[in-house]
């Protein structure tokens, strides 16, 4: 209940409501893009400042190792589960979306943890970066194998080099990395100077962005509900499964509760910005309304409203 009373979450719910009643309320695309870039820049700065303060150590290395392991494990599980239920190209695209991560879900989790005095470590933004691309690489290779083994093998294959370049140089991804470097190099002095920008404004900007996300969820909810029962079940249940696997690894290797929560959130999230943009080019055979609709229409709102508090409770109880 406490999570639902957070102003940012309430704006998200309000955005969903406004969209469902077909209000003409909308956030101009240029402003929505600015808000997205602001959140990534602020997140990157926080991560860089934290890393400058703590330095690289075994605790950070362990969390990053688990992050990379989950980045490969999640799309593998997703594809193996879906490949015999739907078209294999669609299965690969969904696996890529769920194998990658949602920066907005991550940012919302950090904000919720800070409000609950759970002290999230800023360096976990590195995990966000590390988990962004492995799934894309895996499914691009998989898609090429599928083309080779199918009747469409004569279709011109997108260049793996071009796809990876697009993935790694995506503006949002690059801004996050650049901001982390700036934060790391400027350290405590930089943190003090940037506090009005990356600290004081953060909550309001997040609320504004989640309002826009609520409107987007409402627009895509109808398409998401048209999918098969198996796909809707996957979009609903798989985030919890992925979070539990991450929790198990964190318990096994003694990861701190704070890092465990964020690894669970990242593992449970699904990309609806970077990966769909890449997949339109990388796997044109897949239906965008399926992988985009599931991630934004079902998984994202479930994580924002119910998932984050559930993952926090699980990590605190079992870790």
Automatic annotation (TrEMBL):
InterPro entries: Sbt_1
Signal peptide: none
Stretches that traverse the bilayer: 6-25, 37-54, 60-82, 89-110, 122-146, 167-186, 201-218, 230-255, 261-283, 290-314
Protein keywords: Membrane, Transmembrane, Transmembrane helix
Superkingdom assignment: Bacteria
Keyword Electron transport included in the entry's annotation: no
Keyword Chloroplast attributed: no
Protein name: Sodium-dependent bicarbonate transport family permease
Gene source species: Polynucleobacter brandtiae
Source species taxonomy: Bacteria, Pseudomonadati, Pseudomonadota, Betaproteobacteria, Burkholderiales
